[in-house]
Amino acid sequence: MTDVSNLASVQLQPRKINCAMHGDFEAKAIQFPTFGNRTNKIIWASCPQCNRLTAEREADEKRAKEEQARQRRIEERLNRASIPKRFRNRSFETYIADTEAKQKALNTAREFAENFVEHASWGSTLIFAGDVGTGKGHLAAFAAQYVMGLGYSAFFATAREVVLMLRESWHNQNAPSEIEVLRMLTSVSLLVIDEVGVQFNTDAERDQLFGVIDGRYRDLMPTILTTNLSRKKLQQAIGERSYSRLREDGIWRQRAAAIGAIAHTKRPDLDNIVKAIKDGANGVAWKDDSQVVDVHASKQYGTPRVEVEITIC
Hints:
Residues 50-77 form a coiled coil. The protein is an alpha/beta fold. 43% of the residues lie in helices and 24% in strands. 26% of the residues are buried.
């Protein structure tokens, strides 16, 4: 039987050791006893400055790997959300608002994103309308990425892509079924539908879009849409049912004026607006120097709500 009474490690007297990089240093050592007749094992400490540099390098490598993993997760989320690569790594801060109208559109998109918790509880719809090249898709994509940063899910697609996704199962048995695609489009926290209107040439296409809009409307799910069309042409393009859903919960932002008759010439007091809505008023409107504002009444599940539509003049 081996006597283990003397097998404890022993710390030896320190001695000077030369490091080729940092010169002499005082090293400590620990002697570990071994079994049998083998020589005891002695481990001398290495250069403390080398150890520090190694630890810093390993920490940097760990941080780099963690950052790469984080970027991969972000990229995977953006891929799942179908955010166009052109809009990635950009934000509200990089958007160039070189006109008053663009600045107001930027403010609206930022408010929508930063207050998404509130808009999510309402099921709000934000509509950007304007000519090609005015940055509507950029703002919509920025809003989607912002809410994803808050932990919500998002999905970005053109209206044409939405229709093609729903129809894919008709021709491809391996594709998700139409009901599965519809369930995804209606359950994602924020859906962005880009380029709405111009491609709807058949009632079947309008019905498919209505299925998405109506599903999100019923479940109070926020939606952002962009279009090059005016209100009247958009209504004709997507159909009365879809337009009605958007109109009820919509915040409309566009580049040109015109929105029907104005009931008030001065901005009414907000408390009076809320009181009028609670009392059952259908809505009020006013016009100031820069915009036309139409405030509509709505009682979703018995709760009074105020929806504002803004048209840039």
